Amino acid sequence: MPEETRPAPTWAGDVQLGVEAWVGDPRPTPTPTPSAQAVPTDHQGQGPEADHEAVARKILLDALTGQARSRKELADKLARKDVPAELATRLLDRFTEVGLVDDSAFAHQWVESRQRSRGLAPRALSQELRRKGVDDETIKEALEQIDEDDQREAARRLVRRKLRSVQGLDQQAATRRLAGMLARKGYSAGLAFAVVRAELGADALPDDM
After folding, report:
1. Domain named RecX first three-helical: which ranges (predicted)?
2. In a domain? residue 206
């Protein structure tokens, strides 16, 4: 199964800016904040809590390098690394404050990227975002950027790419196969069959099929 294409975050390449915002925050914190750049080498001097925090922060920064992730994805990653839940929550809250974790921005980027590159319909996009722990209200807002015309055009492109694969089939079999492909992409039956029938009945097919 091919690896999912993830949207690049708006801060891609600027993780250091978020870290500097964190380190430079003048507000007092309940525990000393170690360097975000590396795990402290003086483990004995820093103490076990500081060491755990530095390790957890590095896990988050490594996970965010080059791609955005939802808060749940990051929380799950910390849990798999046996980071204590209280520490994980505190760090994720801080990453959210400085803008390195933003489920709303993540959802918008994910929808735009996956709709453009994979032609996914809102239903499929919604399922993907739910699996990543994004809440329903945030998903709904992100999906508002896709209207019916966008869906229809994306469905047309998907069908045109697959027309060669149904050459030689009778129209009924070709319609079923192409409509099934669109259904797996999250399109409703009504839209899928309408687009497929229109494309199969087109007088001229694009030269770059």
Report:
1. 56-94
2. no
Name the DSSP letter for residue 102.
-
* Total number of domains constituting the chain: 3
Contact 174, 197 (CB under 8 A): no
Sign of CA dihedral 30, 57, 75, 96: positive
Q: Are 19 and 97 in contact (CB under 8 A)?
A: no
Indicate the average pLDDT of the chain: 80
Same domain, 129 and 57: no
pLDDT single digits (tens) 54-113: 999 999 999 999 889 999 999 999 999 999 999 999 999 999 999 999 999 999 999 999
* pTM of the model as a whole: 0.70
DSSP three-state, residue 99? coil
Same domain, yes or no: 59 and 129: no
Q: Check if the beta carbon of residue 129 is closer than 8 Å to that of residue 110.
A: yes
Residue 63 lies in domain: 15-97
- Cβ-Cβ contacts under 8 Å for 83 (sequence gap 6 or more): 52, 55, 56, 59
Nearest residue to 139 (alpha-carbon basis) of 107, 114, 117, 170: 107
